[in-house]
């Protein structure tokens, strides 16, 4: 299988051009290639396919083999892949995902894509659509108990479910301990991605993320978007925020008038190769 390893803010995936290749046993392949000791090493596998309704279709799998609906860092790298490898010459792309079609604007440097702005669409706040088990209209500062400790969560879907938790300090957070317990809490029927947010000031936050199916990752684009929405809903920041993740910075703008979120960030090719399956 020919592949390209790419990353956005350290959120790394193995990319395969499935307009040319056919991959069988995809969940098993995702697990194999993602292994950082016996495989390529990644947060998952992303297949770039043809689409009947958009320019391309992004089909993503987490490193445990589960299928994801949307990945903000991953979709930027899809845009870089299709432009840099000559699958398209468009600088405005429409990419189909399992959470809908996303529109992307490419930022070029020396003829290659360096950054991408993604129209991430509208945040979903209705609990049944996130999904979260609740009879409330929205979940803002909703109490939840993990290991006997009380936390407050603000729940948002960006095509995948997020629970945003505000903490004093992200650096000392025992994320490996509490992350899985948020992910598998019974109020989240499809599991959940959990963002732990430290407010630096009204235009800057720091974030760590525990992603369902992948564990802690260096970045999560949809999580950064969900976190800025949660910050605005809680009155903690302005609608345009720099989000500092373990792997770098993303610029998130929440246009409340349009009820639309825009994410701008890097897309980087690491290397390409072949692997025996």
From TrEMBL:
It catalyses: (2S,6S)-2,6-diaminopimelate = meso-2,6-diaminopimelate. The lineage of its organism: Bacteria, Bacillati, Bacillota, Clostridia, Lachnospirales. Belongs to the diaminopimelate epimerase family. One of its GO terms (cellular component) is cytosol. Its main location: cytoplasm. This is Diaminopimelate epimerase. It comes from Variimorphobacter saccharofermentans. It is found in: Cytoplasm. The active site is at residues 71, 220. The record marks 162, 211 as: Could be important to modulate the pK values of the two catalytic cysteine residues.
């Amino acid at each position: 299988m020919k592949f390209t390893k790419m990353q956005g803010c350290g959120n790394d995936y193995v990319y395969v051009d499935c307009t040319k290749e056919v991959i069988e046993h995809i969940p098993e392949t995702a697990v194999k290639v993602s292994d950082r000791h016996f495989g390529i090493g990644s947060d998952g596998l992303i297949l770039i396919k043809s689409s009947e309704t958009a320019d391309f279709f992004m089909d993503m799998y987490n490193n445990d083999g589960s299928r994801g609906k949307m990945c903000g860092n991953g979709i930027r790298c899809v845009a870089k892949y299709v432009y840099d490898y000559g699958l398209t010459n468009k600088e405005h792309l429409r990419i189909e995902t399992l959470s809908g079609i996303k529109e992307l604007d490419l930022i070029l440097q020396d003829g290659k894509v360096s950054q991408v702005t993604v129209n991430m669409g509208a945040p979903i706040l209705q609990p049944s659509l996130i999904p979260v088990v609740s009879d409330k209209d929205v979940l803002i500062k909703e109490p939840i108990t993990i290991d006997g400790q009380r936390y407050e969560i603000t729940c948002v879907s960006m095509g995948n479910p997020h629970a945003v938790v505000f903490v004093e300090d992200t650096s000392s957070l025992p994320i490996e301990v509490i992350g899985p317990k948020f992910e598998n809490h019974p109020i989240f029927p499809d599991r959940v991605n959990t963002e732990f947010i430290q407010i630096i000031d009204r235009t800057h936050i720091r974030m760590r993320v525990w992603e369902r199916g992948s564990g802690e990752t260096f970045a999560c684009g949809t999580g950064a978007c969900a976190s800025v929405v949660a910050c605005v809903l809680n009155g903690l920041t302005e609608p345009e925020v720099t989000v500092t993740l373990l792997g770098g910075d993303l610029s998130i703008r929440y246009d409340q008038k349009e009820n639309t979120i825009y994410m701008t960030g890097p897309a980087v090719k690491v290397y390409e190769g072949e692997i025996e399956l």
